[in-house]
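Q: Structure tokens for this one, please.
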Amino acid sequence: MKAGEELLERNYIFTLGDALITFNPVAIGPLRYVNSFERKLGGAELNFAIGCARLGLPVKWMSRLGGDEFSKYIYNTVRGEGIHMDYVEHVSGYPTSLNFKEILENGSGKTFYYRYQSPILTMTEKDIEETMFDDIAYVHLTGVFLAIAPQNLQIVLAILRIAKAKGIPVSFDPNIRLKLWTLEQARAAYYEIFPYVDILLTGLDEIEMIIGTTPFEQLAAQYDISELIIKDGANGSKAYVNGQWHIAEPFQVKPVDTVGAGDGFDAAYIAGLMKGYDVAERLRMANAVGAMVTTVKGDNEGLPEFTDVEVFLGQKTLVER
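A: Here is the predicted structure, written as tokens:
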């Protein structure tokens, strides 16, 4: 088989992580005054997978779900998005993880996690097999999975070694969760991950916490990170690629819920790579998707389909009737 033919056969994006039932508040304000919630689903890697699927990309998601009714809801919903589910297993005796969201008037808020005895804890390094990556074009990982349990670092490293051996590009979003581990623990894990990372997708505040005063360019050079993407919310984004910075202006929207915007940005940026877009086009589409996500309540309800993005960017006109 020629190299080009092998590349064409690699068309899936792979990610892994847990899924949670998200309880969205019906009312805006401090959680102690909220009496009703809507059941949704979430999880950083799952949001990313859904985002990719809606943009028309084939995705494989690896996870462990509980044996309860919530897990059945998650499984059926995710399968309905067209996501490949062969690496998702139900585990009896482990409850589905939960989180409750607090949303303030400006769309910002807090998330309260209840992950005790998460089914993802049953996953081990032995579950990672080389053949799982034969048709994978990109591997996407985040710091959330790493933060859930110490043994997850070995699972991630097993994936990264396989990806490196097979020449599969790796994207990584630190997605710091300081409610799950300390900054020192996060830093130690990230610096083991960086040598394998090709595309680093990070929030500005996150990367500043991780590397301190180290220049961004130095981090990219030291670890041979080919694309360093800085997400800065309402201020837009920028990318350091081939020794140059590329800056993309934000889209002005009225946010109602900012959760999931970074995951949508990541999905759109990888979609741009898969579609052969240049850096400026990738950033513009990623900014658009991130903005669109904030206009809808829910972790992934606002993730758009590709046609919606084209309309938002003025590339296509929507005929409603």
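A few notes: The mean pLDDT is 93. The CA atoms of residues 189 and 199 lie 17 Å apart.
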